[in-house]
Amino acid sequence: MLSLYRQVTVEAARRAVAAWPAALALPIYAVILVAAAIAFGPIQVIGGLLIGLVMAACWSSYLELVSQAVAGSKIRVRWDDFKRTFLARFGAVISVMFAFWIISYVTTLLTKGANGPALAGVIGFAMAFFFNAVPEMLYQGHSRSFALLMDSARFMFRFPVMWLLPNVLFAAVALWAAGLLQGISHPAEALIVFGSIFSAGGIAQIFVGIPRWSLPLALVALHYVMIFRGILFRELVSGGGNTRLRAFQAKMRG
């Protein structure tokens, strides 16, 4: 298992350097989303829908850039090429956002009682676990909407340890840097905090919590982590992870 992580670590570092434009695109998406919130926020109902469409376009663009980096393709630093990425995976992202909206609506109904906050925490952690590979599924899988979420859950059942070990480590470092580990006194609180980071809102919270001088370092780190995840996902799905997982399990039993 360590040999797999070593291989992915080195390959991700090389490809992260080669795909540096993807890291520079992240602040552009932030500016676009802030502008969309200012422009469409005051508009009732339709404003939220328009902001959602803009967010889907930004996710489409970023995932397309990450997919190119994971595949080892050269990312062109040209505006025309960058514009095309906003629609490259737009339909797939919209289908998953709709599925999450349905799940969020049902979750809201289920958590209205006295035990609502606790139940919401459990549901949130479950979603963070089962849907952890959704970003990679969006550009390396072939399903859409609820089928994609099910594929992510099946992937997590197959590779829970090999996938989560590095991701939990990344999450712990990010939470520590943002000061979000302070004040946690109960295991349940830790689970909720760790579960929340595996979402767009959780990542935004990290960037808000870290010192301003470290923002460039955080962008580089996020860029590297996303490429690491993409390469690890590819290796696990392609069969390399199965071989290493069987060897690891045999070693643990022996």
By DSSP (H or I, 4+ residues per run), the number of helices equals 13
The whole-number mean of residue pLDDT values reads 84
Please outline the major beta sheet. Answer: none
Q: Give the radius of gyration.
A: 19 Å
- Secondary-structure element series: HHHHHHHHHHHHH
- Indicate the proportion of strand residues: under 5%
Helix percentage range: over 70%
- Stretches where pLDDT is under 50 for at least 5 consecutive residues are none
User: Between the first and last Cα atoms, what is the distance in angstroms?
Assistant: 16 Å
Decide which structural class fits the backbone.
mainly alpha
Report what the structure shows.
With 254 residues, the chain is an all-alpha fold. The protein has one domain (2-253). The chain contains 13 helices and no strands. The protein has helices at residues 2-18, 20-40, 46-71, 79-88, 90-110, 116-130, 134-140, 145-158, 160-177, 187-197, 200-209, 215-238, 240-253. Helix 3 (46-71) crosses helix 5. The radius of gyration is 19 Å and the shape is globular. The model has no long low-confidence stretch (mean pLDDT 84).
